[in-house]
Design a protein that fits this description.
The structure holds two protein chains of two kinds.
Chain A lengths: L5 E3 L4 H9 L6 E4 L3 H8 L8 E4 L9 E6 L2 E7 L4 H6 L1 H6 L1 H8 L4 H4 L4 H6 L6 H6 L3 E5 L4 E5 H10 L8 E9 L7 E9 L7 E11 L5 E9 L5 E2 L1 H7 L6 H14 L10 H24 L10
Helix pairs in contact in A: 10-11, 11-12
Chain B lengths: L4 H4 L9 H5 L15 E7 L5 E7 L1 H5 L3 E5 L24 E2 L5 E7 L2 H10 L1 E6 L6 H5 L12 E9 L2 H6 L3 E8 L12 E7 L2 E5 L5 H12 L6 E4 L16 H11 L3 E4 L2 H7 L6 E9 L5 E13 L5 H11 L8 E10 L13 H19 L3 H8 L18 H8 L4 H5 L11 E14 L8 E8 L5 E5 L8 H13 L6 E5 L16 H28 L6 E4 L2 E4 L9 E5 H5 L4 E9 L13 E14 L4 E12 L6 H20 L5 E2 L2 E2 L18 E7 L21 H13 L10 H7 L3 H7 L3
Parallel strand pairs in B: 1-12, 10-11, 14-15, 18-19, 25-28
Antiparallel strand pairs in B: 1-5, 2-4, 2-6, 3-5, 7-15, 8-13, 9-10, 9-12, 13-14, 16-24, 17-18, 17-23, 20-21, 21-22, 24-25, 26-27
Classes of the chains: A alpha+beta, B alpha+beta.
């Protein structure tokens, strides 16, 4: 009648792997904060598995740390780190401010206290993903033997190609290479648009980082957006921006390029065209703003004002 | 008077139920438990329109923990409910007409067992082509959802001659306005506990009219009304949504069948599917005025989607018809309305009661006409406003009111008024600012032709407290606070000297419903009627016991006080309430009366009105089409303010509801099924979406000699914000919005494309 559930709490990755191996596919589900899963279960979009494997006791997945690797500074965020912890982390505040903003815009405090970075990534729909994309984030997975590394962007592309079927690897943490210090002209931003100003699922999110050098030239700009099947990097548009100065012509090109490159999905509340327009509008307006901030204004007056 | 703590003085009272509510200590009826409690659940059709071929409940009956499974066969009385027309089956027999229709109910020893049993009931349906819009239901040859057809109710009001009227017009505006299927979204979803005992049934379930529930249950259960006791307060919000029966038929049938207490409590999911919504309306208005800006002709058609069953769909349409004319003088008027059955969720009573939809349209017409004539829209309103002694919107006599003129003038005291003409664009070029103003007059009471009883009882109870009993309900609006203020004012006693009984049909007299912005007025009138005879009885007895003359006696703290013949001496307590009561429930007085009603036989026509004006400031982000409301100010002309905190709460709360109606709230249905099944997709405003600044100016002067006292304010805060916001959006962007809730996408489509804007600027 009422299904009996078993909750597993492995102490380390090997134990987690062993539990998983002893269960048949479909009989178990890994649970981080469970905030997304709970909503799925309630909506009957997903059946609650009879075995839930909690990873909250696996210590190597719980912390935010910085490390040096081949002379480069890396930030490592354990997949079980909560969204609230990300917001509070001094390391993330220092090196990854758009991630703090993205976490802030997710749900309400009670959800952020439970929901984890790993869960937000693993859904392939979380609002943090565009931010991780613009930082060329790497995912580290436990495959039962070793830890393997894969770029987030590649994982998302493969996932979509495989019809969102996930393998049985366990997401251990994410690794982000950061600069030691911010240079003049560096910028980054994250913007979310939902159907309500606050506490709402996103229709689209955009994120970007890059540099406007002292000559007013865009350098190394990375752009990402969500609102389509999976969040994506807007690589073609990035190329259009590279080594260009801000001008009316450039902005027209960028706007058009984003409209062409970004694929959005129509849902019950917004059409794909609307989402594409909003992504293009937001990115162009933010780029103008950042350019103006570094150059003291004067790029262009957008939107007819 | 701008209402706040400072302007209200000692009338600013902490509400008596406030501390318990904010600390979570208050036990709502759905928090209650009883020994041997069973849990009830309803099996709903899940298909919007189908013939029932068979129902097999054998597996459910065999399931562990299941005590009973009931269907239409188990109803002793009428298989139907509905305040106005009982056409909603308790359990469907042959046909289901919407996805929330009930087919069976289960009682089990646990919630899980009841849930599981629902899955074991096999219902075979033959699905039928659905009617998911009023237009589809009105098509020739459309299947008939009810035996009398697909039209629940029609209205037709006219005066003058439209053809002549429009012939005199220099400016004519015609527009169609669409409004959403708004959900009440009470914090406490529908629920209750049903306890059978000694041949009686006690119902602990929220409602807005306990006696009406008792009557309806009596009809279904085939049980004398006197054997049913309805206990119905406190309530975690209603806004009209719990006026109609919801869990009661199922809980009552299961409890009587099992002879055990049964608890029912809808999840939010079930509440969305089964609960009432505000009627979506399509309102088309053609309005004309002459070269001087005088409104001459006004033609209105209203198409209302009432869903599968009636409840109060008819009266809501009556209300919309009346309010489509508004507080304006127009010689030639024609309003036609249709409330149409569909296979959508049931629409029914909701704060504003059909006024919100047509006021949005009517005020939109005034703004558009002003634009055509190039005149200030506020001046255009002034030119056409009714005078104090004019007839009402449908030509009925109404209590003289200069409310519309008062609120028209008073809104100019808002700081937003000064900003209205000034250019106030934000420093960000893609943020556009605008300010809009609107006005409305809203009727209270149920209207002509509908029984609208009122009454109350007062006594000195045996505990020595002045006790009042009213058949009204506390659902958050602040009735208890208002009653406390009124009683302390009347009797000069302390809070400890009074006792208030509401929401229990065994203990209170019939007082009519707690709806239609009528309750404050009703308890005010009742206490005024009761005070004289009650004091006479108290003072006669006191005089008899103490020898003080009646004329020297006063009620006060703890008991009866006497003035000495030498008035400079302080009052002296001569007997306590406890001594006077002497262990008896004595000195009881009861009053019964009818809500004031127009003498003219115009069905649903109102007699007492409240007026309001609203000014709103918005910011529109032209990159996204999103709108943020920065500030709202209201003026309200509703007579004396009894309970300032409650008054302010009603206007603020109504306004937040109207903000949702305007910007985000829509219970979206697709092919007869709700798409927005929970609060993650049905979006009400959060506290962050509510403007920080919202001031309310209460105009308490009534025309000289007015005997009717405070008018209701329960609904008026929700009726006029939408057109003010839409007007502000127009000022900000040049775009007229005709469909609510506002769709940022539609706004963005009408705004210049950013790429084009960039192209226009020089390189």
């Amino acid at each position: 009648m009422v299904t009996t559930q078993k909750i597993w709490s492995p102490a380390d990755l090997n134990e987690a792997w062993e539990i998983q191996n002893n269960l048949k596919p479909g009989e178990y589900c890994f649970v981080s904060g469970g905030t997304w899963l709970r909503a799925q279960w309630e909506a009957k979009l997903r059946k609650m598995s009879s075995n839930l494997i909690s990873l909250e006791k696996v210590s190597e997945m719980q912390e935010v740390k910085e490390q040096l690797s081949f002379g480069k500074r890396e930030i490592v965020i354990g997949s079980q780190v909560t969204l609230a912890s990300c917001i509070q982390s001094e390391i993330i505040q220092k090196y990854l401010s758009p991630l703090v903003k993205a976490c802030h815009r997710i749900a309400a405090p009670s959800i952020r206290n439970q929901g984890t970075i790993g869960g937000n990534i693993y859904t392939a729909a979380g609002d943090t993903l565009p931010v991780f994309l613009i930082f060329n984030t790497k995912l580290r997975w436990f495959n039962g033997q070793t830890i393997e590394t894969e770029s987030l962007e590649q994982w998302l592309i493969t996932l979509q190609a495989n019809n969102f079927k996930r393998d049985n690897r366990i997401l251990v943490d994410v690794v982000i290479e950061v600069e030691d210090k911010e240079n003049k002209g560096d910028f980054s931003f994250f913007t979310k648009v939902g159907r309500r100003e606050t506490f709402t699922a996103s229709l689209v999110t955009v994120a970007s980082r890059g540099t406007v050098d002292h000559d007013g030239i865009f350098r190394n700009v990375l752009l990402a957006a969500s609102g389509g099947p999976v969040p994506i990097r807007l690589s073609a548009t990035e190329l259009e921006l590279q080594n260009q100065s801000c001008s009316t012509d450039l902005l027209k090109i960028i706007h058009k390029s984003i409209m062409n490159e970004f694929e959005a999905i129509t849902d019950a509340f917004a059409s794909s065209n609307y989402k594409k327009s909003v992504v293009a509008n937001l990115l162009v307006s933010e780029l103008v703003t950042r350019w103006d901030q570094t150059q003291g204004g004067g790029c262009i007056n957008v939107a007819g004002s | 008077m701008w209402l706040d703590r400072n302007s209200s003085g000692d009338k600013w009272k902490v509400r008596p139920d406030g501390a318990e509510k904010v600390t979570g200590k208050l036990r709502y009826l759905t928090d209650m438990k009883f020994p041997d409690l069973l849990y009830g659940r309803v099996l709903r059709s899940t298909v919007p329109y189908a013939r029932i071929l068979s129902i097999d409940m054998s597996a459910a009956l065999r399931s562990p923990g299941v005590i009973a499974v009931l269907t239409y066969r188990n109803i002793p009385g009428l298989n139907g409910f509905g305040i106005s027309t009982p056409d909603q089956p308790v359990f469907c027999e042959h046909v289901v007409r919407f996805e929330g229709d009930a087919v069976a109910a289960v009682a089990a020893t646990s919630e899980e067992a009841a849930e599981h049993a629902l899955q074991l009931i096999q219902v075979d349906y033959e699905e039928l082509p659905i009617l998911d819009t009023p237009e589809a239901s009105l098509q020739e040859g459309a299947p008939l959802l009810h035996k009398d057809g697909n039209i629940l109710h029609q209205t037709d009001y006219s005066r003058g001659d439209l053809e002549v009227g429009f012939g005199q017009c220099a400016y004519v505006v015609e527009e169609t306005y669409l409004t959403p299927r708004q959900m009440h979204t009470y914090l406490e979803t529908e629920g209750g506990i049903f306890v059978p005992e000694d041949g009686k049934l006690t119902v602990y379930a929220p409602t807005q009219h306990g006696y009406k529930d008792r009557m309806q249950l009596s009809r279904i259960l085939d049980m004398d009304e006197e054997r049913i006791r309805v206990i119905s307060s406190p309530i975690g919000g209603s806004f009209g949504g719990k006026d109609e029966l919801n869990v009661q038929p199922y809980g009552a049938l299961l409890a009587l069948h099992c002879q055990k207490p049964v608890k029912m409590h809808y999840s939010r999911w079930e509440s969305v599917v089964a609960g009432l919504k505000r009627h979506p309306m399509k309102v088309t208005m053609k309005t004309g005025m002459n070269i001087e800006g005088e409104l001459i002709a006004h033609q209105v058609t209203i198409l209302s989607d009432t869903g599968a069953y009636s409840t109060l769909g008819g009266p809501v349409l009556n209300f919309a018809t009346e309010h489509a004319v508004g507080p304006y003088r127009i010689a030639h008027v024609d309003v036609k309305g249709k409330a149409v059955y569909t296979n959508n969720g049931v629409s029914g009573e909701f704060r504003g009661f059909g006024g919100n939809q047509v006021i949005f349209a009517l005020e939109g017409q005034l703004d558009r006409l002003a634009e055509k004539m190039n005149i200030d829209p506020w001046e255009l309103r002034k030119k056409n406003l009714r005078k104090a002694t004019d007839l009402g919107p449908m030509g009925q006599r109404i209590v003289p009111t200069n409310g519309p003129e008062q609120v028209w003038e008073a809104i100019k005291q808002s700081p937003l008024w000064e900003k209205r003409e000034a250019s106030s664009d934000s420093t960000k070029p893609w943020i556009k600012c605008g300010i809009g103003v609107s006005l409305a007059m809203h009727g209270s009471g149920l209207g002509y032709g509908i029984p609208d009883h009122a009454g109350g009882t007062i006594r000195l109870n045996k505990e020595g407290k002045i006790e009042v009993a009213f058949g009204h309900e506390e659902f958050g609006q602040g009735l208890l606070g208002t009653l406390e203020i009124l009683m302390l004012d009347h009797f000069g006693c302390s809070k400890e000297d009074i006792h208030i009984i509401i929401g229990d049909t065994d203990l209170v007299p019939p007082s009519g419903s707690s709806t239609a912005s009528r309750t404050t007025n009703m308890v005010w009138q009742a206490l005024n009627r009761l005070k004289g005879p009650f004091l006479e009885a108290l003072f006669s007895k006191t005089s008899q016991l103490t020898g003080y003359p009646k004329e020297a006696l006063r009620t006060g703290l703890g008991g009866i006080w006497a003035e000495s013949p030498h008035k400079e001496k302080p009052l002296k307590q001569v007997i306590t309430y406890m001594q006077l009561a002497n262990g008896t429930n004595d000195f009881e007085c009861t009053t019964e009366f009818h809500y004031p009603v127009t003498p003219d036989p115009i069905m649903g026509g109102h007699y007492l009105y409240t007026s309001t004006s609203v000014i709103a400031e918005v910011e529109v982000n032209v990159l996204t089409g999103m709108v943020v409301v920065k500030r709202i100010d209201h003026t309200v002309a509703a007579g004396p303010v009894i309970n300032p905190m409650g008054y302010l709460g009603q206007i603020e709360g109504g306004s937040v509801m109207a903000l949702g109606f305007t910007l985000t709230e829509d219970a979206v249905m697709s092919s007869g099924k709700y798409v927005t099944k929970n609060l993650d997709t049905y979006l009400i405003p959060t506290i962050f979406d509510v403007p920080e600044a919202h001031y309310v100016k209460a105009i308490d002067e009534l025309p000289e000699g007015d005997p009717f006292g405070p008018r209701g304010v329960g609904e008026v805060g929700s009726v006029a914000l939408a057109p003010a916001i839409v007007s502000a959006i127009k000022q900000a962007t040049g775009v007229w919005v005709t469909e609510l809730p506002l769709k940022p996408e539609m706004l963005l489509q009408q705004l210049p494309v950013l790429e084009e804007e960039i192209a226009k600027t020089p390189s």
